[in-house]
Design goal:
The chain is mostly helical and 89 residues long. It has helices spanning 3-16, 26-39, 55-63, 69-81.
């Protein structure tokens, strides 16, 4: 992982963190979700994937595994607005 990708992960975690319910290991959980988006190739600088879905929708799909769908959509929209998601193919 490069310094640039580490910075992107930190910024992504900053966006996710306010949406996490509870107080237990909030930052760790936000960073874990950011890493999952990174592994899926959905963050800025990532390699284009094979899915025909828009990147923002793919991100929401990944996030909804640990968040409600409404929250996952909101986080994905905020990540897109901040320029933190991979550009469309």
């Amino acid at each position: 992982m490069t310094v640039q990708s580490t910075n992107v992960l930190a910024r992504v975690a900053d966006v996710i963190e306010p949406h996490i319910d509870g107080t237990f290991k909030v930052r760790d959980r936000a960073e874990g979700m950011a890493r999952q988006l990174y592994v899926c190739g959905l963050l800025a600088g990532g390699e284009p994937g094979r899915s025909s879905l828009p990147v923002q929708e793919q991100a929401a799909n990944v996030l909804q595994c640990v968040q409600s769908w409404t929250t996952a959509e909101q986080i994905a929209a905020e990540l897109a607005e901040a320029g933190l998601l991979r550009q469309e193919n």
